[in-house]
TrEMBL record:
This is Transposable element Tcb1 transposase. It comes from the Eukaryota. GO terms for biological process: DNA integration; DNA transposition. GO terms for molecular function: DNA binding. Residues 60-204 form the Tc1-like transposase DDE domain. Pfam families: DDE_3, HTH_Tnp_Tc3_2. Residues 6-49 form the Transposase Tc1-like domain.
Length: 274
C-alpha cells in the first residue's frame, strides 16, 4: 500500500484506519455457489414445506456424506469487510471437495435416534451406496418408523440419483418415501452441524489421530457420543431453516440459520422473527 506514496504509513496505522471504517479482518465465508435456478428451487421448497412443524420433520431421517482430513490445512483466506457484507457474493469463497489423506463417512439420523456412521472406502459410488441403502437405511427405517410413515432425505449427488438407486427406492416406496431435496442446499440439512460437531471433537483430542485408522476410530467414537438433545434440537430447527431461506429469497441462509437454529439454543422461529 506504500508503493507510489509520498509518505510512508505504518502497518498499525493502516489497521487502525481500516477498523475505524468498520472493515474488520474476517475469514471468507464458504458456501455453495448458487445459480438463479438453485435459488428459485430452494425458495420453492421452503414455501412448499412452510406449513410443516417440528412434528412432521421428526418423521424425516437426514443423511449425507462428509470427508475428514487427517492433517487439516484449512486455507483460511482473510479479507476486510463490513459486518453487513458477510453474505455479499464478493466475500464468499466457493467450496470444493478436498483430496488425499482423508476419510469419507456416511451417516444418517432422525429426531428419534442416530443411525450408523459408515466409513466409505475411497469415494461413494452407486454400488457402494446401494449397499448402504440395503444394509443400513432399510433396517433403520423399518425399526424407527414401524408404521411405514418415515421419510428419507438425501441430496442430489450422482450416486444418489443413479438409475439403479432410483429403482431400489421404487421397490421400497410402500415402506418409506424419499423427500425431494433442492440442489446445493447444505444449509437446510441439519446433519452438516453434526459433521462440524465431529470435527471439533476430533480436533480437540490429545493426542491427535496419527493415521487414517485412528481417525476412523476417533470419528466413530465422537458419533456414538453425540448428545441426544443435540441431534433432536437440530431436527427441530427445520422450520427455522426454511423460514431463513424464505427470508433470504432462496440465497444461502447460513448467517440467519446460525442466529436462530437449535444448535445455538432451541427457539421457536417464525417468519415474523427472522
Amino acid at each position: 500500500m506504500n508503493q507510489g506514496a509520498t509518505k510512508s504509513v505504518s502497518q498499525s496505522t493502516i489497521q487502525r484506519t481500516l477498523l475505524r471504517l468498520g472493515l474488520r479482518s474476517r475469514r471468507l465465508v464458504r458456501a455453495p455457489m448458487l445459480t438463479a435456478v438453485h435459488r428459485r428451487r430452494r425458495l420453492e421448497f421452503a414455501r412448499q414445506y412452510s406449513s410443516w412443524t417440528s412434528t412432521e420433520w421428526r418423521q424425516v431421517a437426514f443423511s449425507d456424506e462428509s470427508r475428514f482430513m487427517l492433517h487439516r490445512t484449512d486455507g483460511r483466506w482473510r479479507i476486510r469487510r463490513e459486518t453487513s457484507e458477510r453474505n455479499h457474493p464478493a466475500t464468499i469463497a466457493g467450496t470444493v471437495q478436498a483430496g488425499g489423506g482423508s476419510i469419507m463417512v456416511w451417516g444418517m439420523f432422525s429426531w428419534h435416534s442416530l443411525g450408523s456412521l459408515i466409513i466409505v472406502e475411497g469415494t461413494m459410488d452407486q454400488y457402494k451406496y446401494a449397499s448402504v441403502l440395503a444394509d443400513h437405511v432399510h433396517p433403520y427405517m423399518r425399526i424407527v418408523f414401524p408404521q411405514d410413515d418415515g421419510i428419507f432425505q438425501q441430496d442430489n449427488a450422482r450416486c444418489h440419483t443413479a438409475a439403479s438407486v432410483r429403482a431400489w427406492f421404487e421397490e421400497h416406496q410402500d415402506e418409506f418415501t424419499v423427500l425431494p431435496w433442492p440442489a446445493n442446499s447444505p444449509d437446510l440439512n441439519p446433519i452438516e452441524h453434526l459433521w462440524d460437531h465431529l470435527d471439533r471433537v476430533v480436533r480437540a483430542m490429545d493426542p491427535q489421530p496419527r493415521n487414517l485408522a485412528q481417525l476412523a476410530t476417533a470419528l466413530e467414537s465422537a458419533w456414538l457420543n453425540i448428545p441426544e438433545n443435540t441431534f433432536r434440537d437440530l431436527c427441530d430447527s427445520l422450520p427455522a431453516r426454511l423460514a431463513a431461506v424464505r427470508s433470504a429469497k432462496g440465497k444461502d441462509a447460513n448467517q440467519i440459520i446460525c442466529k436462530f437454529c437449535a444448535i445455538y439454543g432451541p427457539s421457536a422461529v417464525s417468519d415474523d422473527t427472522i
